[in-house]
Design a protein that fits this description.
It contains 10 helices and 15 strands. It is α/β, with parallel strands linked by helices.
Amino acid sequence: MHVVRLSLTDYRNYARAELSLGPGTTVFVGRNGQGKTNLVEAIGYLATLGSHRVSNDQALIKAGSDAAIVRALLAHAERELLVELQLNRKGANRAQLNRSAVKTRELPRYAHSVLFAPEDLAIVRGEPSVRRRLLDELLVQRTPRLAGVMADYDRVLRQRNTLLKSARARGLAADKLTTLDIWDERLVHFGSEIIDRRVALVEELAGPLAEAYASIVDADHAPELRSMLSVDGADPDADALDGGSVEGSSIDGASDSGDQVPDAGGPPVSGTAQRFAEALRTLRAKELERGVTLVGPHRDDVLLMLNGLPAKGYASHGESWSFALALRLASAQLLRRDSATGDPVLVLDDVFAELDRARRERLAAAIGGYEQVLVTAAVLEDVPEHLVARVIRIDHGTVLEDDPTEAVDEAGRADAEDGAVDG
């Protein structure tokens, strides 16, 4: 799959932008704050229904505007699809496919993308929420229906936390709060599927992760992923101040049931559901004391291991970067393997500036076979030369096509720092 044309209206710093794209590699070059990242962020949003920089859609809408519009013409083999998304400052977001209205959660079915960014270092060194989001975004792209499941879980979680806070304020004992049982049933129903899907995904990533890491580092550091589940006693968010939410589930428009929590259907039957329900019963008194939900997929984590040790705290800066890049490459490999639309679009947002020359070359070699690769850079010299097939210069929200040879000559005079325009 590749993006043939991208059109933005009132998105970030763009009143209007039109780009014609194609297979192969395109490099967006520009100084700090010109809007390079905004272009690739828009493509990533269509695939994941979220931004890699902000959690709130409001930041994506140009100041003074009521809505932002992202349109992308996507091509796969002989088929073309026009995907459109309207991000609204008020009310639910709206989406269209070939000019016909669809639910926003349907978009990842058609647009697949994997984005590499400097923020990815937090996958290794950051909080559990970053790793949960990595898994959830990949799950949604592979199974778009899960966006609705995650949104349903998030709403149940908020309602349950509200009830717990109210009970704590009123001093109710655990045995007096019988209304909590129905929320437990729904939480378990939706949450168990999320847990099971994540665990299965972690297992699927093992092989591609090892291959990707070796391709970047050219060494065997035995990278591993291990699921840490709160239903089994793990508590990576023990010091969190609230019950959290499922990353990827607060997608505007992911579910069309408004504030009404959907019926959970039949009783939970999986082993995960039984362990989840038992954990809720065991922790109910403690949850009432704290006023938050202490168990569920919103409190799970994935342990990243290198050479038998946790990467967080033990891995060097270079090893941490390699692990994060390998996870992105492994994600792309799974999408390439399973998707009916072919290769995902690979987006490298100012990544090469963060890497030494050896890792730049190895990463460039690893992504070379993908149908479409989009790269942003402040300095063109940071990008391996064989990737510089087409150059587009961005200047204060204006798109200017460059001759690649001239761009290479001028690259050394560009500012070496990139940034984001948040509306």
